[in-house]
Amino acid sequence: MTRDQNKGINLANSENNAGVNPTVAHGDDSCSAEGKAATESFEALYEAERRARAEATARANELEAIFEAMADAVFFYDRQGHLLRTNAAARELLGLDQSPGYHSLPPDERLVHFLPRDARGRPLPEQQWPIHRILSGEGLTGANAMDMMVRLPDGRELEFSVSGAPLRGTKGNITGGVVITRDVTERRRLERMAQGFAREAVARASQLEATIEAMADGVFIYDAEGRLFQANKAARELLALDIQLDFHSRPVRERASQTLVRDEQGQFLPKEQWPLHRILRGEILEGTNAVDVMLRALDGREVLLGTSGAPVRDAEGHIAGGVLIMRDVTERRHLEQRTHDSLDALLAIAEDLVWIPSEASSAEDPLPDTLTAMSIVARRLADLTCSVLGCRRVSISIVEPGTELVRAVAVVGFTPEQELQWWAEQKQQESSLRDSPSQELISILRSHEVLILDMSQPPYNEQPNNYGVRVALVAPMVVGGQLVGLLSLDHGGLEHTYTQEEIALAKAVAKLAGLVIERERLLYERAEARANELALRESHQRMDEFLSMASHELRTPLTTIKGNVQLSKRQLKKLAGKITKPEELNSQIGAIEGLLDRADHQVSFLTRLVSDLLDVSRIQANMLELHIESEPSDLVAIVRMAVQDQRRALPKRTLHLQAPSEMIVPVIVDPERIGQVVTNYLTNALKYSPADKPVEISVRVEENQARVSVRDEGPGLSLEEQEHIWDQFYRVPGVEVQSGSSVGLGLGLHICRTIIERHHGRVGVQSAPGKGATFWFVLPLAGDA
Ligand code: ADP
What we know:
It is a single chain. The protein contains 21 helices and 24 strands. The protein is of the alpha+beta class. It has a 6-stranded antiparallel β-sheet with strand order 2-1-6-5-4-3. Strands 8-7-12-11-10-9 form a 6-stranded antiparallel β-sheet. Strands 14-13-17-16-15 form a 5-stranded antiparallel β-sheet. It is elongated. The structure holds adenosine-5'-diphosphate. Adenosine-5'-diphosphate (ADP) binds at residues 680, 684-685, 688, 712, 714-715, 717, 725, 730-732, 735, 744-750, 773.
């Protein structure tokens, strides 16, 4: 409320009416014409005063109405601070209508109820209370208005903006005061909220700013026209933007012509495919949509940048700019490439491992000596190792089994001159692991661990370092717990710290290399064994050829002789029948017949020897042919025929055949060869037993097989002899032929066993010295095979 208003309100009170009253007092003196005139003028004066009074009352009423209608609470106080009047807003605000005694409370008790505090909530000392300040002459208007907090009887906490002024009398003395209170609780709350928001927004913005600046990825922020208006530290470093301060302000096209936007393969990208253009067209570059671009930094470096980004839209959704986030993937690509190369190389080593030279090439190629063969493989391994481990030099030595002599077999990474020198040194230094002075290092290698040798430290720095090696790594090549070689590598003069991964990789490569080298050695050994075997087989073959040739050569004349002998015998018989001969001639013819019989017998014997030799040579050459019939043959018939042959040849001997008479015993066989086996058993039984002893032959069916046995009462065989009689050329020492045919070559039983086994049967003998012998064989029954 202004000072004028205060005046107006004062008018409504009666104090200043004194100025008008004197004229009223003067009016009592008039009585003549003069007096009349005077009376008239008094009336006029009364009238004027009445009007003035009416006007003043009307003004006062107006002001009273305004006072009551005011939204701010208004409090009038007298000089002592007693509350004189309040308007409706004040009464309502403080709930004064509900506490009628409030007005009459002493001044210092009134406000205490409301816990007056300053704007920050601290208790307000009494002399600071608005009414005290006003009564002491202070005006609380404009900037001087004060904020305070109060608690209402109903518990509400309110904030007031309090203004006011002292009321003064005509002499300027303070007659009281007016206090106007406005409830600003809500406004202050909103103001505080707004301030909070503003503070938060600022904090957020600076946080964001700091975050973007601190991001490891390069962040580029553009406006809708593609102007670069912010690039964080990482972004500036990525493209070395700080060396050209006006780069930001250059137009897109100019910037692009400096950075040469290319794809991963280095091909120039058309403008519409530049990441910036894509995001400004509304595309989001992330996930599979992210792209790799190659850029030239302002310092000339070529960098491959993994790029993602998105447009930035305003409140209406229009594109207002865009953000690109770029990460240097050059190193990662190199690593990927390295990993790729390493895997390829490891794969190649693994392939080497499983690759086995074809039989043909190994059989035809002349054998290189072991070291040459290994050097070729080792050199390839060394090359592969170089690419797996990305090192400068790799050498491979083998540890010879037995002697443990260490022999260099390959080195890569030297100049040709260095390599020559290195090989010469290696030849000189060749020694056994056992003689090495550094046994503790060797035991580390033997325990499958790698050695890392710092050549700049003793004792290595005391030796000449011809190749400028800084740090060398030696990995053991171990196969089946045996140290078979050493793989050494270095990075030349470069300081290189071997990571755990590299050490593990070196061990793995050495392990694989060990396997390859060992395999190579075994292949070589096998090839050597094969070569020997080949030579052996060749000599066998020559032997076979000779035997078979010899058999044929012998057989042909034998056949002729036998034919002639038999012809002579028949002719002699015919002749003897035609002529009547004197006694002497008779005995001569008888003698000739005897000679021819013996010759016939000898020829038969020779023929059998030749057949045996021929059979054995065929067996050895794996060329014994069987003519197995598709229809089953009757085993009893085969045996019976062989028995009858022997009965015919040796009519004086007793042969008993026991065989099922009413059924056949079906076997799928070459009947002639089975007959040969039976005959062999029979001739042996007859040969090695006394002439007066019988030979028992039996044919039996047992479950799914047929058994043929030939029992004699000859000398019998010890267990040891039984083991050997089936070997070729074996004859039991001291066993004499007791009757019948002549001694053999020790081939018959060997041929028998081969024939029976080729028929999927088995042979055997049951015997004891002095107890005779039973030779047997079994064959699968037809249909049961
Ligand atoms: P051979 O033609 O010498 O008889 P075999 O291979 O048929 O050759 O027999 C090998 C050797 O087994 C014979 O030399 C003989 O010492 C012994 N042998 C074979 N059959 C009998 C038998 N029934 N009784 C005793 N010894 C035998």
